[in-house]
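Input structure tokens:
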């Protein structure tokens, strides 16, 4: 069954975000939808191009200064979860802010945020699907192969034993584990879209605190995932599912609620979000006299 499920789940990881993007664009008749999707996808890739080397360098520098082996296990895990969560939140949300600020200027609306969020989370799912599909064929070839041949390729014996354990764990997994991986991608996509909707509020509402809210929420999600996957294993997906439901609430709450009317520099346009702008009356025109 795993021989069938692994490649099907990998293909679903690739197809699902694309299908959701097609549905969204047809639902709202967005001619520029794929451009927004591509901007979100490119932003994810660019963020990871800085995020991954940063984590690698920070890990080496921290281990050179701190002997984590002396720390209690829980303390070390909490530190790792907080660091990785904050790192992901800062790199991805600042990259998303830069996208809206200097690139996707026409996407500063609820629909634009959802489109770029689908691209951001979709690119992550597609890349993971491709990587998992490649890994499947590699492990399929090694399942019945002679691993001792790998030792002849200058692979140390201890690493060879580790490879054998990993291959055995892969093929002895429960049948539902690949499906949990697919569900996690769907949950992550909901979270990524909600983060895009939060960041775009900086421009819709003219309030910078929405960026810090997005960074904090992203950091919380990743920190909880890192911590609890070590504590409760696959049950961590229940926590991620709860966060995905909360993210859906964020998405539709900000879609249904128009931004408040503010005065001063940075006042958001009244047409942001799903609601069409109302025709201005005399009081509205009078109020705009004092705005720059």
């Amino acid at each position: 069954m795993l021989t069938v499920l692994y490649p099907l789940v990998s293909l679903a990881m690739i197809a699902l975000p694309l299908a959701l993007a097609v549905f969204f664009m047809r639902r709202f008749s967005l001619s520029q939808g794929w451009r927004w999707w591509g901007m979100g996808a490119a932003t994810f890739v660019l963020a990871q191009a800085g995020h991954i080397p940063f984590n690698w360098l920070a890990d080496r520098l921290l281990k050179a200064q701190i002997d984590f082996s002396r720390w209690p296990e829980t303390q070390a895990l909490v530190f790792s979860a907080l660091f990785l969560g904050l790192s992901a939140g800062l790199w991805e949300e600042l990259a998303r802010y830069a996208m809206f600020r200097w690139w996707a200027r026409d996407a500063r609306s609820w629909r634009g945020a959802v489109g770029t969020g689908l691209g951001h989370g979709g690119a992550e799912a597609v890349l993971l699907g491709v990587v998992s599909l490649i890994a499947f064929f590699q492990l399929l070839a090694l399942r019945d192969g002679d691993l001792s041949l790998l030792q002849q390729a200058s692979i140390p014996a201890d690493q060879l034993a580790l490879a054998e354990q990993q291959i055995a764990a892969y093929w002895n997994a429960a049948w539902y584990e690949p499906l949990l991986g697919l569900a996690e991608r769907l949950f992550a996509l909901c979270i990524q879209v909600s983060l895009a909707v939060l960041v775009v509020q900086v421009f819709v509402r003219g309030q910078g605190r929405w960026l810090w809210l997005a960074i904090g929420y992203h950091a919380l999600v990743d920190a909880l995932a890192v911590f609890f996957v070590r504590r409760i294993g696959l049950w961590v997906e229940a926590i991620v599912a709860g966060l995905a439901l909360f993210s859906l609430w964020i998405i539709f709450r900000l879609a249904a609620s128009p931004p408040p009317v503010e005065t001063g520099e940075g006042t958001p346009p009244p047409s942001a979000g799903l609601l069409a702008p109302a025709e201005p009356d005399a009081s509205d025109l009078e109020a705009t006299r004092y705005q720059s």
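Confidence is low (pLDDT under 50) at residues 261-292. Residues 2-290 form one domain.
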